[in-house]
Amino acid sequence: MEIVLTPALRSAPLSKSMSQPSSPCPLTPRDLKEKLCSAEARRVELNKLRKINIDERLASVQTKKEELIVEKSNRVKDELENKLKVSEENRESIINKTKEDVHAYLTKVEQKVKDLEVSNEAEKIAIKIAMDANTNKADEKRSEQLEQRIKELQDHDEYVKQVKATQEMKKKQYLANLELSLDKASKRKEEQLAKVVEAAKETEVKVAEAKERRDQEEKDLQEKTLASLNEKLGKVEEKQAFKDGELKAKIEEKNRKAELVKNMKNMNLGPESA
Questions:
Q1: Of 74, 42, 107, 67, which is closest to residue 243 (Cα–Cα)?
Q2: Cβ neighbour number for residue 204 with a 10 Å cutoff
Q3: CA distance 219 to 64
Q4: How many CB atoms neighbour CB 67 within 10 A?
Q5: Do the beta carbons of residue 174 and residue 108 sit within 8 Å?
């Protein structure tokens, strides 16, 4: 509120026949006090509104920061859980496929062994038929042929035994290698899972540290903001107090001048009335 003070105008000399004009109504101390109280009330209310607005903004900023941190933590956690789930599914798929391949290979080996046994049996029957067909031949030839056939059968049986032993050894070696490979694959998967879990823990620690740093930074920022606001409010209050003092001084000066004008008028009217 500003009041413009104009210099007091000296009234022109009045004749005895003319009536005296009415003097301006000066501000009373009560009016001055009411205006000062009203100005002080408006200033206090303005300061309250400013503080409430600042607190609401700080609370909104803090809420948004916390929501962003929680959202980021949940997103990182979901990504890690999805990676672990996909890794476990891949591991199960590899193990199942390996088991199916081993089963198919063993089935083929067993089928080959059965085919070999059938072939041996058929050969034995053919030999027996041939021997029966040649029973009418000479004894020497027959004995020689029988010995030769027996030797061939013995050699063939020995060969079949060697093939079976070789197949069995290959089967055991393959199963041992397969089991070793599965153990290595399982260990590698476990190591990868452990690394993923460790990375997840490190990520959680980093997120917690980042949150703590953000909280500290926000706390420092709030303190700096409050200090700056308090400093600004103090300056505003000082300026307002200075303006109020100037206003009060101007009003007092105006009242003093008005009182002086009134006294001068009374003094001028005294001799004329005498």
A1: 42
A2: 14
A3: 15
A4: 10
A5: no
